Amino acid sequence: MRTTSARVRSVPPTIFSQMSALAVRTGAVNLGQGFPDVDGPPSVIAEAVRALEHGANQYAPGIGVPALRQAIARHQQRHYGIELDPDSEVVVTTGCTEGIAAALLGLVDPGDEVVVLEPYYDSYVAMIEFAGGVRRPVTLRAPDHRLDPDALRAAITRRTRLILLNTPHNPTGTVLTREELQAVADVAIEHDLVVVTDEVYEHLVFDDALSPEGHVPLSTLPGMRERTLTLSSAGKSWSFTGWKVGWATGPRELVGAVLAAKQWLTFTSGSPLQPAVAHALDHEPDFPAALASSLQRRRDLLVAGLADAGLTARVPEGTYFATTDIRHLGWADGREFCLALPEVAGVVAIPSIAFYDDHDEGRHLVRWAFCKEADVISEGVRRLAAADLHRR
Q1: Fold annotation for 58-283
Q2: pTM of the predicted model, to two decimals?
Q3: Which member of 46, 159, 275, 359 has the greatest number of CB atoms within 10 A?
Q4: Where in the chain is the domain with CATH 3.40.640.10?
Q5: DSSP codes of every residue in 139-177
Q6: Per residue in 66-77, pLDDT tens?
């Protein structure tokens, strides 16, 4: 008896579940999966409790509660000058992950090509497959991990439907500059393409980022508002990853495509959490900047500790993550290294090969998370420095 569909069999299990389970099983320090050790603002938690106690326990509107949609519209206007109609140009999703799924299912037909930056967040692969799309990767090549406009242009064919962009970029920590974004915009306008842009780390950009502007939303570039669907969430910037409350914003037609697919996925998202996230956006606007400042210090702690252990990391401009090349240690690839690392050093990391089609490019890269508390990072890098990381 066949127990799974071909579409499920075609996608390997997420590497995050595998490596986090390994951390639990071995008692290793988890510098792998990107979830923080400390919750977000207490006032936001209190707002969720208040909502639970005052009747927000039944279905919310599929598009999202008005208070949150209005808060999202205010957030986009306040930070970026983007004007949105909260009743037609904003939809609440069950995290950015559902936003990605609904966007691809709502916009991509079987055989359509999706141009995507490589390395990629692994749900991109799964959902392009589920939609019947064809992945066309454009590689951000180590060690600089910058966008090559010529490679982007070369990826476009007559079957290209959309570009799936991620900036600030997981797992490399690259923040695309205005010039790089303009290259994307030029291609999208020339070929009349939709761009879905995952901006979930939008506020987690560091003050020594390559671009003095920090994060620039693609939709703010000339000619891009009408063809850009922007995804984000409260999970990363307000440290509530387990709440899974995100959003998609953009033109009515693109948001409508997300809602058309979302209604058959979760239908609606957590009712008591939505007013709490609205409170976060409106009343805790300084939290993300303070978090980014703290993350920058922890980034520097991790990067220095990795160097002490013989692992040179590219200094990321944003996100939670830093990448190292481990080929000098003699391991066949990053997966073999990461599977052995809990036994060798009592630490868990993520093999970046899981995020690549081009396995030669990603084979020896490993991703480390610095969203953990400083003492956890210090213990992790102490263990790494004390261990012999060479393959025996």
Answers
A1: Aspartate Aminotransferase; domain 2 (3.40.640)
A2: 0.95
A3: 275
A4: 58-283
A5: E-BTTTTB--HHHHHHH--TTEEEEEEESSPTTT-----
A6: 999 999 999 999
